[in-house]
């Protein structure tokens, strides 16, 4: 890989770098952190992410290294934007494709106008419950651990803000959408509640984070692209040191 690529620069990972990464499908956010941390060895640096993405989601993940990890909470608090697809006419226990469909509904009588109108109650400051299959901790235990064991979970309502929620394509049972929301918003819960608003069912089938604060997905690195660049730079430095 050419180090002349204008997308890259001379990083100072110890001092602190903010890295924009396009998280791959089925990778956890910690998978990405681990991959980058390993590429930086033998440097022993703090590496962390500013805002978890579910494994089935893709898109913008902010990674911080070195001294910049102290600012993770600040980056994490920023407004987020997502695009995605829901399946109307069915539900799953996890509100997404992690679990199998448990109930189906007739969508033949639902008009496009009703689908567009169903967004309106969810725009602004709203209340929502996190999915039972989520990483939220209750009494020190992740909800998804209890849910997968078939145990009852206590869901606590949370308040979030949704400045924008719009439908961008309708081709039933698929419905595409765009959402702008505050930290802590569960898009899976939003889509589940959207289905209920239509006296129907809905679950999330695709989700991509396109923005976090002022940072955009279009400016992000692919994970392996960045890892290979870092390794190439280390090899160059090693070669120069041996000359």
From TrEMBL:
Transmembrane segments: none annotated. The keyword Isomerase applies. Keywords: Isomerase, tRNA processing. Residues 46-187 form the Pseudouridine synthase II N-terminal domain. It catalyses: uridine(55) in tRNA = pseudouridine(55) in tRNA. Signal peptide: none annotated. It is an enzyme of class 5 (isomerase). One of its GO terms (biological process) is tRNA pseudouridine synthesis. Responsible for synthesis of pseudouridine from uracil-55 in the psi GC loop of transfer RNAs. This is tRNA pseudouridine synthase B. It comes from Pedobacter soli. The gene is truB.
